[in-house]
Write a structure and sequence with these properties.
Length: 537
């Protein structure tokens, strides 16, 4: 009997998925455990395996198309089985008509309503992160009248988390640009129109209006056009190449992760040096190019503007997408989560000696921050209540440890995530944090690298701050604020001696972490920080 296979929910925030590639075709025999397709979610491109056996009778979503979770993806059954009733019951469009779908509406219906010429595609502002509500065009890489090939990079889009390359899945001529560089628009608003050369698209463009006070683009409700989700996310990584970066296809990224290959070691053979599948397949360790390390330099302080004596003067700066989202999320956290704070002061003598010994190993260098990340990760495994997350209807006690490390950037603050931090060595943590910090300041982190944290660390010690409090990064239950190491008189064995201490403040959400629970976590953390050799046992 035929079985309907729906679009799976492959992540906790996934609402829809895009078929990156089908690994089986209609008529192929399917065994349980076979990989049917690669699905691009809001976080990653993942393999989707079959839990059924039979023959692939129908494909409901073609490569490059998007559908919501739990909607028809495929049908598996016996060879020659009649599935017409299943197709009718699920109210889906057949495989031959699927290329006319646009967010569940046939292209023909849209054409009659707004008179879209044949072959013309309306490209809308993509949702490039789970929290993105609007985007800003940082740079156009194509101009009106220029030919666009499938896979070409159209523009750089600034989201609330990063600046990302936006790739076209259509071929044709760029007929219209809906937003100029520096302008913003909400997700699904008009970004561009692509179609045959010489096509008049002025009527389509007029159906969109621009609010002059914000620069955002909106579609009248009765006229709103949702083009097929024909975008993909491109990760940008720092390299030693002549243009300073490489583009990576989602499939190539996934293959590189599976093979343990550092993307910065590859030379892309695709357009603009983009790394594609064949580059990963043909990679040989001996061909690793020399790359320069990213310097984790502090931000350059601003230079004071000259103002004549006795003259009032000010500058107005428009909020960036990042600053808007930071304000919104931190406001929600501060006014919804009942914060309380636990303050401690640790003896750092052993930590200082441990770091000096560790860094005496050739080609090895760790920071105090790396030690704190590792110590927190180990302590969190013993205190899952502190490693928890609050949701409206439940509390999640995480058995994995993903630590977010706050990094200051020009527009505010980003929090890249060191995944499975308890399983990583100190040098691995140090390398990851240094890489994140360098790319964060160049706005080259991907949204996936800033999602999924279970605990957050904010360190202002390098700025000489002795102690401070932080706002919890929801839905996490706690955040640790780390101050600088101070040389001061301390009492040891009844004697006043010169010592080194560090102050830390743990902000907790009282809905999930009680005072005693937070205190026990800090006691465990103290054991690791004041006796760091125990982190290696």
């Amino acid at each position: 009997m035929a079985e309907i296979i729906n679009m799976p929910r492959l992540s906790d925030t996934m609402e829809e998925g895009t078929v990156a590639s089908w690994l089986k075709k209609v008529g192929d025999k399917i065994e349980e455990g076979d990989i049917l397709a690669e699905i691009e979610t809001d976080k990653a491109t993942m393999e989707f395996e079959s839990f059924n056996e039979g023959v692939l009778l129908h494909i409901g979503v073609q490569e490059g198309e998007t559908t919501k979770v739990d909607e028809l993806l495929a049908i598996i059954g016996e060879e020659g089985e009649d599935i017409s009733e299943l197709l009718s019951a699920t109210n889906v469009i057949s495989t031959e008509q699927s290329d006319e779908k646009s967010q569940g509406k046939p292209q023909k219906e849209l054409s009659e309503a707004i008179a879209i010429p044949e072959g013309v595609t309306v490209v809308t502002m993509p949702r490039l992160s789970d929290t993105m509500e609007e985007g800003t065009v940082a740079t156009w890489l194509k101009t009106v009248g220029e030919t666009v090939e499938e896979g070409d990079i159209l523009a750089e889009i600034e989201t609330d988390k990063a600046t990302m390359e936006f790739e076209s899945f259509q071929s044709g001529t760029l007929l219209h640009i809906g937003l100029n560089e520096g302008e913003s628009a909400k997700v699904d608003a008009l970004l561009a129109i692509i179609g045959p050369e010489g096509t008049d698209v002025s009527a389509i463009a007029k159906n969109f209006k621009v609010e002059e006070n914000t620069g955002s683009t909106e579609v009248p409700q009765e006229r709103k056009m949702d083009a097929p989700k024909a975008e993909t996310k491109i990760e940008v990584v720092q390299t030693a190449s002549t243009n300073g970066r490489l583009f990576v296809s989602p499939l190539a990224k996934k293959m590189a992760e599976e093979k343990g290959i550092n993307l910065s070691q590859l030379r892309g053979s695709g357009e603009n040096g983009r790394i594609v599948k064949r580059d990963v397949e043909n990679f040989k360790p001996s061909s690793v190019p020399q790359t320069s390390s990213i310097q984790n330099a502090s931000m350059t302080p601003p230079v004071a503007k000259f103002v004549a004596s006795g003259q009032e003067n000010f500058d107005e700066v428009k909020h960036s997408q990042m600053r808007k989202v930071i304000a919104k999320r931190l406001g929600e956290s501060k006014f919804t989560a009942p914060h309380y704070y636990l303050n401690v002061e640790f003896d750092m003598e052993n930590a200082i000696a441990f770091r000096a010994q560790f860094n005496s190993i050739p080609d090895t260098k760790i920071s105090y921050n790396d030690m704190i990340v590792k110590a927190c990760a180990l302590a969190l495994r013993q205190h899952p209540q502190v490693n928890s997350q609050w949701f409206d209807d439940r509390m999640r006690l995480n058995n994995h440890v993903h630590i977010g490390v706050a990094v200051a950037v020009e527009d505010g603050l980003v929090v890249p995530v060191v995944r499975f931090a308890n399983e990583q060595t100190l040098p691995q943590i140090g390398s990851a944090v240094k890489d994140f910090a360098g790319r964060a300041r160049n706005k080259k982190l991907t949204p996936q690298e800033m999602e999924g944290s279970t605990f957050t660390i904010s360190n202002l010690g390098m700025f000489g701050i002795e102690s401070f409090t932080s706002i919890i990064n929801q839905p996490n239950s706690a955040i640790l604020s780390v101050g600088t190491i101070v040389e001061k008189p301390i009492v040891k064995n009844g004697q006043i001696v010169v010592g080194h201490t560090m102050k830390l403040t743990l902000a907790c959400d009282h809905r999930t972490v009680d005072g005693a629970t937070g205190s026990q976590f800090l006691q465990t953390l103290q054991g690791y920080i004041e006796n760091p050799v125990t982190m290696l046992v």
